[in-house]
What we know:
10-stranded mixed sheet, Isopropylmalate Dehydrogenase, isocitrate dehydrogenase (NAD+) activity (chains A, B), 2 domains, 3-isopropylmalate dehydrogenase activity (chains A, B), alpha/beta, homodimer, 3-isopropylmalate dehydrogenase (chains A, B), binds 3-isopropylmalic acid, EC 1.1.1.85 (chains A, B), two-stranded antiparallel ribbon, oxidoreductase (chains A, B)
Amino acid sequence: MGKKKVVVIKGDGIGKEVMDAALSVLSILDLNIKFIEAYAGYECFKKYGDTLPDESLKKAKKSDAILFGAVTTVPGQKSAIITLRKELDLFANVRPVKCYPGIECIRKDIDLTIVRENTECLYSGIERYTDEGAEAVRVITRKACERICEFAFKIANEKVTAVHKANVLKKTDGLFREVFYEVAEGYPEIEAEDVYVDAMALYLITKPQDFDVLVTTNLYGDILSDEAAGLVGGLGLAPSANIGEKNSLFEPVHGSAPDIAGKGIANPTAMILSSVMMLRHLGFEREGDLVENALIEVLREGKVTPDLGGNLKTMEMAEEIKKKIMELS
Amino acid sequence: MGKKKVVVIKGDGIGKEVMDAALSVLSILDLNIKFIEAYAGYECFKKYGDTLPDESLKKAKKSDAILFGAVTTVPGQKSAIITLRKELDLFANVRPVKCYPGIECIRKDIDLTIVRENTECLYSGIERYTDEGAEAVRVITRKACERICEFAFKIANEKVTAVHKANVLKKTDGLFREVFYEVAEGYPEIEAEDVYVDAMALYLITKPQDFDVLVTTNLYGDILSDEAAGLVGGLGLAPSANIGEKNSLFEPVHGSAPDIAGKGIANPTAMILSSVMMLRHLGFEREGDLVENALIEVLREGKVTPDLGGNLKTMEMAEEIKKKIMELS
Ligand SMILES: CC(C)[C@H](C(=O)O)[C@@H](O)C(=O)O
Ligand SMILES: CC(C)[C@H](C(=O)O)[C@@H](O)C(=O)O
């Protein structure tokens, strides 16, 4: 396997801090990866006049994977992350929801994955002012429905649940549901069901253990994945992958958290778990398992940042994980 | 005060059962109300060829309030409840979220109200097929934003939180947020803040006690109110009011539940709490308090339906509430 090219975009605020922690963990593994830094976000805008300079986009396009920290988005400025998802056609946003040892969860047996369509829906960017106010267009295409549903069935173990609101959005969500069941026919060994998005928001609380893979359109996926993160310890632990045909991008679900930035106390778990997703995606399965297992031990022992009830700083938690990696390997 | 006219629409499935329970409770109060039955829903369609016959709509328009059970909506048929909300311009959907004694809640100190705009957003009904798939139009008008925000500030005690996604929907949700802060200026004694909808889905789980009134557009309100119901015992306990300038409609958040319909075991709490909201809205404050207090005692004593861990039937629970009303009055 040739050397992989990973573009690192730290971004703003705690994005930089958790990325440094993740890179420090990765540094002790024997990986055939070349890391290349690129810039994006608010600080980048202040320096280079663009929240996502062309050069960063070019580097990203030529990479095997992108590790993305978090950016601060200011009203009126182009969102670096939404632009990257669209430009690189990263159509599948994958958000695992899992209860780790030592973490307070609503239930212990939660282990599901939200697969969120990442390129259209109300994120199409089509909005206009009208005489009475404003309008946005929700775009749902057959092609995007097909590929996101295919993706969901491919990663499912037992069941895929399509989440929609076809009782109200009869054409757009009706199409999504229709395509979902068409795709389901190709996977007779996987159970297929569909649920209304409002009911799903309830079921995540009352019976999250009933679900394996959820597949849904962009905005519902945005809302449900934050909710789901709340069930298993919050955004500090929620990783995500943005997968396309050519490129891929791995980022924590949390933002740049200006309120705690600079203090060195941000929880690096979501970023490190995002790196684990990246390692597996690039074929470094064994290394991915190693980092996740080390992290699990550290969580179990409570060697964690203040948000999880510990008293370690971001980099100290990373050091603990590195020690565990040494022990385990 | 003249006699009030209340139109009763039982609907389908458990809608009929919980309505009978609620009417039985109301029957022992000395109310200056005339109840008039009207039909809507799937059974109504089978009998009269329409899910909401003109006659029902006319009766509804001439009423002081509508008590609505639940209807079964079949794909391709007009939704009776959405039609009623629109035709009667019931612009404010009010959904209290409160932890009652004897009910398992995520936290004990939850007491918030979701105010959901009820007439537009993705419920505008504007959808079309395109070459690639389908499109829906999300309509946000200044007028609807104004009146829903006014409504929210009027019922708030301490704080109103506007929920939106203006980082992505810069024009439509940008307008909503802008109008929200304009309206807030008229209520300097009430705190005003705004939160992204995905973050709100998380905060409902991690810090629901921090909120008083949430105000939001139609679809976010739909999703968040089901989620919120999950925090305080589920849909069996979630009432709602749909308020307009002239008319008003009170309904449980749950549906017609075909799976348990006909067994007489549906939880009547949400319907009874909806009646309590109606009583207060019509000026029967004392009677509203009486029913709510009686219900609280019955919940505390565990004289409840199977979904809440009891062994009473729907009508038996109603009888218990009536006994308590006698004791308390
Ligand atoms: C920052 C924002 C544009 C983004 C989104 O809405 O997709 C974030 O909430 C997420 O979920 O990754
Ligand atoms: C039945 C459905 C059309 C309705 C809605 O989406 O408004 C329901 O979910 C609700 O919340 O009252």
